[in-house]
Structure formats: structure tokens, C-alpha cells
Design goal:
The protein is α+β, with helices and mostly antiparallel strands and 438 residues long. The protein has 14 helices and 10 strands. The protein has helices at residues 7-17, 19-43, 55-62, 136-156, 218-223, 242-253, 259-274, 285-298, 308-325, 346-358, 384-387, 389-392, 399-408, 417-433, and strands spanning 69-74, 83-85, 98-104, 119-121, 130-134, 171-172, 177-182, 187-198, 227-231, 237-240. Strands 1, 2, 3, 4, 5, 6, 7, 8, 9 and 10 form a 10-stranded mixed sheet that branches. The relative contact order is 0.11.
Length: 438
Amino acid sequence: MAVPTSPWHHYLQAVRSRQAPRVQDFQRAEDVLLAVLERVQALDARFVVDYSRDAEAFQFALRSSDDPLDMQVPLRVDAEALLTEEPDAPELEDGPARCRLGIPREAAGLERWMADDVFSAASSEDGAEGRGHLVPGKVLSVLKELLVAAIVHCRHHSLIPPGSLSAASLREEQLHLSLVVSGGWRKIRFNVVPVVRKGHWEPALEGAHLSPGFPEGSLDRILGQGLDLVPASAQDWSTSTDYLLTRLLQVLGSLPGHRLDGLCILDRVSHESWRNGGQSPGLTFSHLKAVLLWASALFPSPEDWADLQGAVYRLLVVLLCCLATQHLPHPLWPRLNLLPTSGLDLHALYQRVERFASQPEASLRLHATHLGRCPPPRLDHGIKALLQLPASDPAYWATAYFDVLLDKFQVYNIQDKERVSAMHSIFRKTKALGGGES
């Protein structure tokens, strides 16, 4: 007699069934954009087509939303020869470092970057160390003009399919250029971003707290690949870690267990239930990616990820804690909050996520006939007070604390005696503080 498929696996199968056609749509759209960027490079050799990174295809297959994707356009410049200068205005504390990129006075091989269209010369009164600065606002304007010319050329010479891309969709945003590309029946929006590649380690990055969740040496290898500098304003550049975080995600996908499956399920539930099919603001894939990176560090044991339902709940308890405290730490800058402070009702979002965690079966329905009556809620009352403890004491941001939360949701199945003892110890501590319920 066949064993019935659990609603979690049933839902995951449905999510996976959409991944192959999504990848095909992405690849067709990417081919169109790459053809245009090849023409951009032919028009201006300062801009380079990057074929080496598959991060966006990997992410697009995992996620359910059609939020914009980044397409980086590297600048053909020796970043190590540029001067990295602190901006005049103070930057956000504990956030990505901002800088200006200066051209040294004894510049060799940087003449093409001292053209007026991308360069701002230093005045004689500045006493600056360099000749001037590579200006991101000007770089974006040049890239926009090149994209328009390249799109017209590619359409005229039938280098891209008819109707796949129009210059009319090109919009200049503050920090990127937005293009809508047809990948078949699906339209995909790309954020075209000029980027300066740096090949050295950035001491400001903090990765040690993530190391328990990764194979030995893998974290250092990825963080040692270098950083990207992207426009932060019309004058300043800032460090971007998007590619590094995605590479870390790929490492997690190579490990046994359901880490990425849990991410896919939560992203689909978020898109359909918490964002009303993408019509309402809410959590992005980038938010959930950060949640998974933290959950992998807090739950490093393979035993934690062996069961699909348990994998989803390991993401859920971290997410609920972040929503309750309104603080999702950046995995590489823990003091930087990734949750927006405006434009998103975090209290209402918390309520939706807690409702799902308490009674998930209703949101796992693919059709009204797929599931019978829902089991009773896993919680008979809220646990928000318990979830807020890390806001008052960072020591609670630890495995034992989140094990207590798993036990609350009736999904704690760990047999390790030391870990069970640590969980009971912190549970007694929360009871003494009045932060937990029996």
C-alpha cells in the first residue's frame, strides 16, 4: 500500500515543477540581454560583458516571485590602481562601506577613465591626492545611452527576437538601469548595474559567526573572492555582498538535507499568502536568503535538515524572531538591519507568519480538493514575548534558544543529550524571566 505524500512534500513537488520552465524563460531573457551588452562592449570597450556568473539563474530557479534581477556590467578598470577615499558625508553606521574612487596623479593605463563623460576633475584648491574621481552617476548615464543604441542596433539587425526588448522599457533609477526583457511568455525585469570588481579581502566583513553552518574552509574561500563596488549615490560607490551571499547559498545547496527546499517552500508561501500573489509589499527572496544563512549557522547539524517539515520550521523560528524584534541582521554585517523601517507593516506580517507556523496546512493547499480538514493549531496562544528576548539580550541568539521555539511548535526531534540539556536550561531561564509559557 502506497505511503501518502505529506502536504509538505506535495507542495514542494508543485514548486519544483515550475522551476524548469522558469529557468528556460530566464535563459532566453538572459541571452537577449547578453546580446545587447555585447553590442555595448563593442561600442565602448570600457564596459565588459560578464559570462562567468550563474548566480542569478540559480536564484531565479529557487524563487517564486518575479522581482527584478541584477545584471552586473563590470568596468574594464584596475580597481587596485584606484584610490579609495572616504566620502565627505558620514555613512550609515555598521553598514556597507561607502567610498569615492579617485584616479591617482601618476595614473598609468587609466586615461580612458579620465574622459569628461565618467570623470570629475579635482579642483586645485581641494589639495586632493588624485586627479579626480570616477563618478557613478556619470557612468550610469553613459551606460544608458549605450544601451539605447545597442537595443536599436540589435533590433535593426535581427540579433534579438522581435518584441523581446524595447528601449522604451529602459528607466534610469537612482542606482541602476531597469530593463524589461521577454523570455517567452514571461517578462523579466533586470536591474543593470555597473560594477567595479575588487580582488582583495575586505576586513569589515564578519563571517566567523556563520562558519558552523558551512564545510571547513568554504566560508573563507568565498569571502576571499573579492568584493563588488556598485553605485550608492551620484558620487559614491558602496560595497555589495549580493554575489557572496548567493555563493554561500550555493554551498548550502550542495549539502545533504532540505535547506534550499525549505527556502523554496517559504518563498512560495510568502509570494502567494503573505504578499497576495505578489500584489502586496512583503518579504523578498533576499530577506529569506539571509534567514536561511542564519538558520544554517544556528542549526549546523545534518540532523536538523533531514526532515522537510523540520527544515521549514528552522527558517520559520528565525524569521519570526526577526519580525518580532523588527531586526533581521545582515549575515556579513550583523549590526545592519535588513528589514525596512518604512513602507512595510511588520506587525501585520508577523501575524501572518505566526498564523502559518501555527497551522501551515491551510497555506499548503494547491487546490481545494488536495487536503482534508486542517489539524488543530500547533499553538494555543502567541509566543511573541518569547520571540522578543534577543532584542534585550543578544545571548539568546543561539541554538538552544531557537530549539525552545522549535519545541513550542512541536517539531523538536533532536536526540543529542547535550543539546537537549542546553535547550531545557534556556527554557527554564525564559520561564524565570516570565518570557515563556508552559
